[in-house]
Input
Amino acid sequence: MNITDLIQKGVIAGIKQLYGADIAPERITMNITRKEFEGDYTVVTFPFTKIAKKKPDEIATELGHFMVSNVAEIEKFNVVKGFLNLSISPVFWKNFLLETAGNPRFGQQEKNGRRVMIEFCSPNTNKPLHLGHVRNILLGWSCSKIYEAAGFEVIKVQVINDRGIAICKSMLAWEKFAPKGQAEGATPESTGKKSDHFVGDYYVLFEKKFQEEYKAWQQSDIADAIFQEKKGAIKEVSEIKAEAMAKALFFKNFYKNTYFNEYSILGKEAREMLMKWEAKDPATIALWKKMNQWVYDGFEETFKKLGVSFDKYYYESETYLLGKDAVEEGLEKGVFYKKEDGSVWADLTGAKLDHKVVLRSDGTSVYITQDIGTAQVRYKDFAPEKMVYVVADEQDYHFKALFEILKRLGEPYADGLYHLNYGMVDLPSGKMKSREGTVVDADDLIAEVIAEATKESEARGEISSFSETEKADIIQRVALGALKFQIIKVQPKKRMVFDPAESVEMQGHTGPYVQYANVRANSILKKAEAMGMKRPAWKEVAGAYVSLKKEEKDIVGLLYRFPETIRFAAETYDPSAIAAYCYDLAKNFSKLVAELSILKAETEEAKAFRLEICAAVSNTLTAGMGLLGIEMPERM
RNA sequence: GGUCCCGUAGCUCAGCUGGAUAGAGCAUUUGCCUUCUAAGCAAAGGGUCCCAGGUUCGAGCCCUGGCGGGAUCACCA
Output
C-alpha cells in the first residue's frame, strides 16, 4: 500500500482514538518534510485544534506517539511548532528500492483499457514548421507518452490544413514565377532544397509580388479616392497629420485584405485557383497534390529528426465539408436556431459565451462546423473516451465554444474533451513575426543545436575514439535533449521566452545535465560489472544495509514519488512536471556521487545498496526523459 | 470596451493545488580534478512574490478592486 495512504489512515485512526472525532481524508494536509528538518513526511496539525481542543504541539506529540505504535512503517517522529515530522523506517525504503525501483517497468501503470486521442502539430501546408510547431509537437508527443505510462491506449493524430487560400498562393506563385527551364519548372530535386522549404519560398514569393502590386496600386487615383473617403473613420490614421504617413499606415494596416479581395489581380487569380480546386479541376488538383506532397515529404523529415510519429492523419480537404449533418440534427433538437437569411447559429450566452455561426447564409460551413464533424468522425473511427487538442491559447475561445456545442449535441465523449492550450513562444527580441523574418525555423534550429553539441563534444574528447555513426548518434541525442528539455521544462500555459543561445546550453538546468547524471550512473554500473559484481547477487548483499545516509534516503524517497508524478502530469496535462522531477532526481544523484563513494564504499553492504541506487536512478531517469521524448546517450 | 490567460532574484523558470526561514539554473565572486566522466560538487551575494484590501491559526497560491503585459471578441482558419 502507498505510504501516504498509510499515514492518512493512521491519522484518521489516531484522531478517532485520541479525540473521538471522524475526519475526512482531504482534511489532512501532508507534505514532504522540508530539507532542514528531520523526517520524511510532515502532517500539519493546525486543522485539528478545534476537534481536539488542544494546542497544535500537544496534538502533534500525541498523534506522533500513536502513529509510531500503530503504523509499522513509521519509525519515529519529532514535532516543530505544530508540524509533526514522521520518519519512515529504513526497512521500508530499502524494500522499496530493492523490490520496485530497479524494475525496468517502474512507474508504468497497468493498462487500464481506456483510450485517449491526442491531436497535435496540425500545420498548414504552405510553409515549413517553425518554433511554435516545435513547442506544440513536444507537448503533444510528451502527453501521449505520459498517458501511455498512466495506462491509457493513446492515438496520436493531426489535422493537416491542406486546402484553402494559403496553399493556392504557393501554387499560383510556383506556376507563374518558377523558372521554366526544365519540362515542368523548378522542383525541390532540381534546386536541392528541402521540399517543404521549397514550397514555403513560393508562398513568400507570392507575398512579395503581391506587395509590389499593392504598392504600385497605392499610387493610383482610385486608391487615393478610397483613402480620402475612409481615413476619417479610423482614429489611428486621422490622428497622423502628415498625409503621406497617414496614407502609408492606412494601406499597411487597414486596407490590405479589402484590396486583396476586391482589386488585386494576384488575389483574384489565387481565389480563382481555390474555386477551380473546389470544382475539382484536374490540372489544379494535380498541382495541389504535387505541391502538398513536397510539403509532406519535408514534414516527415522534420518529424523524424524530432523523433515523433502519428497514428492517423486527418486532412482538411477531406473533412472541410463535414459537420453539416450535425447542424441539421442540432436544429431539430433546438441546439441551434436559424436566422431569416438562412444562417444557422448557436446561442451560447447561457455558457457565458456569445452567439456563434455554425453555417453561413449560403449554406457553407465555417471552421467550427468542420471541427464538430471531425470530432464525430474521430469518435466513429476510434471511440476514445478523451480527446485532447494541443492548440495555442489564441484559440481558447474557439474551443470553449466547440466543446459547449458538442456537449449540447449530447455527444458521448463531450465530458472527455480537453484543450491543452499553451502560450506563444517569444524570442528575447520579442514576438516572432513572419513579415519581419524573425520566425525561427524548426530545421534550422535543430541543425544549430547539433552543430553546437558537436563543437562541445569535440572539445571534451570523451567520445573521440567512437565510430562516426556512434558519435553522430550520441551528439544527436544530446543536442535534441538540450532543445527539447529547454522547451518542455516551462509550463504549457505560460508564454515563454526562447533564447536560441540558451537552447544549446548544456550546463545547469538542462537536458544534458540529466543525461550526464544517467551516463555516470551507467558508467559506475559497468565498472562494477567489470569488477565481477552482478545484479541479483549484489541485491542480496544490499538487503543487509539498514542505516541509510541522508543522500541515500533523499534519492529513494524521490524515486518513490515517480509514479505519482506521472499521475499528476497526466491529470494536469503538464509534461513540465516530469521535466522538473527528472532534474531533481539527477541533481540529488549528482550530489550523492560527489558526497559518497560507491565502488569504494565503506562496507560491501553500502556498496551494493548504492549500486542498486545507480540502477534505479538510471532506470527512472531513462523512463522519465523518455516521457519527454528525450533519449539517453550511452556515453557523452 | 467585454471575456480569458500571465505577472516570483538582473535574466530564464520552479514552488507538490492554503503550511515551517519563497527555491533552481544562467550571470557575478570563491573553493574542489594522482579517487566511480568537472556537461560535476560546495559556498557567497542577489526578493516590496505587480499594488491595495479581504477570508484564514496561517496567503506567492483563495476572493474583491486596481496596475502592467498578452490573447480573443468575423457568415477567416
Q: What stands out?
A: The longest helix of chain A spans residues 282-306. Residues 165-279 of chain A form one domain. The two ends of chain A are 39 Å apart (CA to CA).
